[in-house]
């Protein structure tokens, strides 16, 4: 956070069904979500105050047909959380998202979600970001992961 007084914008990215909406539900007390049949169709929004500063968090839809929403929501972001489903291999969507964040030098962390399901041996080669194991459904790891991202953004 270069400007200390500025409100912060974080975007939660990741493939379809990885647990992005569930992650936000377990970070914020109140949130707004737009879903149809259990999948995000435009965005989710919530906020949380950390150390007196307001953090706005947007969650994107994972489905490829909503790629344009990811681009709109990623404008002016200060940091990102990439939620991946550890029970599946990293998808091309995950890799594209991570490459774009790297190219734009945006601070980000990876939430390796669904740790309660048998995990794949995920290949994180070439990915230089903190990886936080989470069980979003139980709220495990999500707030610690957000704190880590906020620290990373300040450094
Ligand atoms: N076992 C398990 N299931 C989870 C976990 N987190 C989320 N889920 C489930 O995974 C499914 C998808 O979760 P969502 O939070 O809707 O995923 P999403 O990434 O927002 O999905 P899209 O908006 O469609 O991209 C739901 O059935 C969740 O209950 C977890 O930690 N463990
Ligand atoms: Mg969703």
Summing up helix and strand content along with how strands pair, one would put the structural category as: alpha/beta
Distance between the termini: 8 Å
The biggest beta sheet is recorded as: 7 strands, mixed
Any idea how many domains?
A: 1
Instruction: Give the radius of gyration.
Output: 14 Å
> What is the arithmetic mean of pLDDT?
92
What is the N-to-C order of secondary-structure elements (H for helix, E for strand)?
Answer: EHEEEHEHEEH
Question: Any idea what the CATH architecture is?
Answer: 3-Layer(aba) Sandwich
Q: How many beta-strand elements? A: 7
List bound small molecules: guanosine-5'-triphosphate, magnesium ion
What does it look like?
By secondary structure, the chain is α/β, with parallel strands linked by helices. It has a single domain (about 10-155), classed as 3-Layer(aba) Sandwich (Rossmann fold), CATH 3.40.50. Helices cover about 25% and strands about 30% of the residues. It is built from 4 helices and 7 strands; from the N terminus they run E-H-E-E-E-H-E-H-E-E-H. The chain has helices at about 20-25, 65-75, 90-105, 140-155, and strands at about 10-15, 30-35, 40-50, 55-60, 80-85, 110-115, 130-135. The protein has a 7-stranded mixed sheet with strand order 2-3-4-1-5-6-7, sandwiched between helices. Strand 3 (about 40-50) and strand 4 (about 55-60) form a beta hairpin. The N and C termini lie close together (about 10 Å). The relative contact order is 0.21. Bound molecules: guanosine-5'-triphosphate (GTP) and magnesium ion. Magnesium ion (MG) binds next to helix 1.
């Amino acid at each position: 956070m270069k400007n200390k007084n500025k409100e912060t914008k974080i975007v939660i990215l990741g493939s379809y069904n990885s647990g992005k909406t569930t992650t936000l539900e377990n970070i914020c007390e109140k949130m707004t979500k737009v879903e149809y049949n259990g999948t995000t169709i435009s965005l989710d929004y919530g906020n949380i105050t950390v150390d007196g500063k307001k953090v706005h968090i947007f969650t994107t839809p994972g489905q490829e047909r909503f790629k344009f929403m990811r681009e709109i929501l990623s404008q002016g972001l200060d940091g990102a959380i990439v939620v991946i489903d550890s029970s599946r291999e990293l998808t091309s969507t995950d890799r594209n998202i991570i490459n774009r964040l790297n190219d734009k030098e945006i601070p980000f962390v990876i939430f390796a979600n669904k740790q309660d399901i048998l995990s794949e041996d995920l290949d994180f080669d070439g990915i230089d970001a903190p990886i936080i194991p989470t069980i979003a459904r139980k709220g495990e790891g999500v707030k610690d992961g957000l704190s880590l991202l906020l620290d990373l953004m300040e450094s």
